[in-house]
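Why do we care about 3D structure at all? Because function follows from shape, and shape follows, mostly, from sequence. That is the central idea of this module. The next example makes it concrete: a single protein chain, its amino acid sequence, and then its structure expressed as tokens.
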Amino acid sequence: MKKFMVTAACLSLVAGAVYAKKMNKEQKRLENCGVVMTEVLNIPDNIPHELLEKAECVIVIPSVRKLALGIGADYGRGAMVCRTGEHFRGPWGSPAMYALEGASVGFQIGGEATDLILLVMNERGMESILSSKVKLGADASVAGGPKGRDASADTDAWMRAEILSYSRSRGVFAGISLEGSTIRPDDEASEQVYGHAIKAKEIVRGEHTGVPGTGRDLVNVLQKNAPRNESERAANQ
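And the structure:
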């Protein structure tokens, strides 16, 4: 019996290694987005639950790094997941891949690599990001998001913002300003994830785009923590 258990465990490890080897770079990145989101939501003083419940979409960009030595801009890639349904009141849908370029995120909080979480708080912000490259602070308003019990202290700020942004670096989780950064659909990365050419809008708006295996953890953690859209706009539909 003991020998059988050892053999089974070895086979499981081999199968896991084979699966990981088969995943391409973008599929691994998408899987990592789920890991980052899970870890962030397990931080005691994390994103206020009421904000996550009111978000239309969530963007996760793990390990943002500097473009090159001596250049102040950062670059990162990740995924966006939005709620489904005509008025975005349904369950969380399939992830589309996104890229962020611009502000010196690492410099702002003293880290070499930074995980970013962006909450898209209304339909206008979501439509902007779905359509094209968006400059944060110009094409879409952005603010560093409150965390934990600080949510009520910054009510006016986060109610006005279309996008709320957070960062995690060296164990520090906080709201962060991303004004001047740009975010755009990364359709080439989405093609690598889904195995065929597909645009972000088709993924988010499409009713028949299944969640890829590497995106299930990200979608599931959002569904578990914020299953319903509690925004006033959605409630009045």
